[in-house]
Design brief:
alpha/beta
């Protein structure tokens, strides 16, 4: 979508973790904490996990250039670390089912658990020190003039996104 904005293929896009660019304007819609999601254990589990401890866990994670994959890799690289990728799966329900079955862990928003059938078998731990945050933004080309229809589309996205996220 970012590339489509750059070449003029689309006028408005909704993107996760937009890369700062003079060619694209991004207006934040939502910011979410990401969690390590894994199978529930019988013992007491810590409610949080330090970002630097994330490489200890085998991850079931989307393939590149998925926004969460790129965010995890970039943030770990800033600490001189790399994730341990057990599997690359692009469908969130499949990731959660595999995590519930004990094949690895997911890095997702806790909101992903709200509609997941496997949610009762999973446990989410907030990633902290520093927090791992995912941002959703509405993006437009900074190189093309804004049009009235583009502005109405942005207003519609902003009006619909809040209730849609609250319902999930």
């Amino acid at each position: 979508i970012h590339e489509w904005l750059l070449v003029g293929r689309v006028d408005v896009g909704v993107v996760y973790n937009p890369v700062a660019s003079p060619a694209v304007d991004a207006r934040p819609l939502l910011e979410e904490h990401l969690c390590l999601i894994g199978p529930k254990r019988t013992g007491r589990e810590a409610a949080t996990l330090r970002l630097r401890d994330l490489p200890r866990f085998p991850l079931i994670i989307p393939s590149r250039p998925h926004a969460i994959r790129m965010l995890v890799e970039t943030r770990l690289a800033s600490l001189g670390l790399r994730p341990q990728v057990a599997m690359e799966i692009d469908a969130v329900p499949a990731i959660l089912e595999l995590a519930a079955e004990g094949h690895g862990y997911a890095v997702l928003s806790p909101r992903a658990l709200h509609s997941a059938e496997a949610a009762r078998r999973l446990y989410a731990r907030a990633i902290v020190q520093p927090r791992l945050m995912s941002k959703l933004a509405v993006a437009t080309s900074a190189q093309r003039p804004s049009t009235p229809i583009q502005q109405r589309a942005i207003e519609l996205i902003e009006r619909l996104i809040g209730p849609a996220l609250a319902a999930s």
